[in-house]
Amino acid sequence: MAYSEKLIEHFNHPKNVGTLDKSKNTVGTGLVGAPECGDVMRLQIEVDEESGMIKDAKFKTFGCGSAIASSSLATEWLKGKSIDEALAIDNMAIVEELALPPVKIHCSVLAEDAIKSAIADYKSKNA
Amino acid sequence: MGSDKLIYLDNNSTTPCDPRAVEAMLPYFHQIPGNAASRNHPFGWQAEEAVDYAREQISNLLAVESKEIIFTSGATEADNLAIKGVFEMYSRKGNHIITLKTEHKAVLDACKKVEKMGGDVTYLDVKRDGLVDLAALEAAITDKTVLISIMWANNETGVIQPMKEIGEICEKHGVLFMSDATQAVGKIKTHPKELGIHLMAFTAHKMYGPKGVGALFVNRKNPRVKVTSQMDGGGHERGMRSGTLNVPGIVGFGKAAEIAMQEMEADAARLSVLRDKLENAFKENLEEVYVNGNVEHRMPHVANISFKHVEGEGLMMTFNQNIAVSSGSACTSASLEPSYVLIALGLGDDLAHSSLRFSLGRFTTEEEIDRTIEMISKGVNHMRDLSPIWEMFKEGIDLDAVEWSEH
Ligand SMILES: Cc1ncc(COP(=O)(O)O)c(C=O)c1O
Ligand code: FES
Description:
The complex is a heterodimer. By secondary structure, chain A is an alpha+beta fold. Chain A is 44% helix and 19% strand.
């Protein structure tokens, strides 16, 4: 299977790999697994208290190349967005941007779920 | 091979055709165009002679009679012919077949078809090292059992089954013994008659011959074994497999067998040193490296290794512009299932997910192995830096206790 150049670029040079301090109230952490293939993604956001904008995002992913590229892209997209804008990120936009083949669509779903799960964690901390 | 060249460590999928086999084949495409079944002119005679010669070369490698070799289109067809052919031929004697869960799909799916045809099939578990449990095998035999089908060497792990002991059990109970020896023939000694094997499937393209040609060995004396043909037509191959013979392919197959007979011992000795070097280097360079399958009863050129907390497809992407291997990871398969062979060995999904199969071959060089060690060690470290599971493992978190939110 030949992957797109954008996907390979994100895979070879993933953006925002790392860990944020999950004990902070400004940090939301999502840890999700894909039941289809057993892959695991952890995505974190840090929200600026004053502006309410996402000022940082980090990920670590155990998974295929498409899952790693999807999470790298997702963290790029998250930075500078409001929570509502972040919630609107759709996995199909990731599919399109990285030209994922049909068998790899669930890898982008994993990224969308990780975003939603990180936001839910942030909201529950700040409810 | 130059350092910019792709390193091919996927010889269990297929081997490159040996140039000497290619050379032997060439005249049979154009200069000698005959159909081996044309009995009335020199073109046909020449083709028939070439086929007979190849049959000799192959039977010499196996220490069997040339008449016991039935040419097919490959091991898949030979497996099907053996299993369905025995089932049909011996239906009055019984309808039960015993095989292993770790067999190749060609055997498993032929057995499934047999079940649809009214047969009864037992799929035995293997032990954690991939070996058959001989006591369980013997216990599974009933008075309806006609065939035991157990592969010689596994394609994913290289694990070699105790053929002699299985043969003795078959002999004791009067059951036919069939083996898919695709991964063993031409690489280690495979003399079916010494071990009580009655039918044996193999293929040219796993032993440095061409693709699209294989054979089934069918024992002709004590006992005289027969199979019902699965391909009907002109009655070629003693009525067991009709269809015009692939003369160039068969000539290449024969040449590959002759070369194997002369060189396989030296190949095996050289490759096992390289394989061990590869395996030991990973164990030294990296943590949490596991070798899958029995390491004592194993093909000399195969290593199946799990790099824990790293997903195989992602890992392959770190080097697959340069090195060809295969993985048991779910992410590499269209079905998103991890390797059923590794699962049958009792590996958790996580280890199956993290596995790579290295299969070396006649054309593998030490320099290639050195570069493989370097690139893959780097790839594993890269992937572990990216892996949340590795991070948790390093922090001492019990991964089995983590609750994942699933979508
Ligand atoms: C153990 C085993 N049996 C059967 C086959 C099928 O062989 P062929 O490609 O010749 O049909 C293979 C090859 O994939 C194999 O490894
Ligand atoms: S996340 Fe497993 S196949 Fe992509």
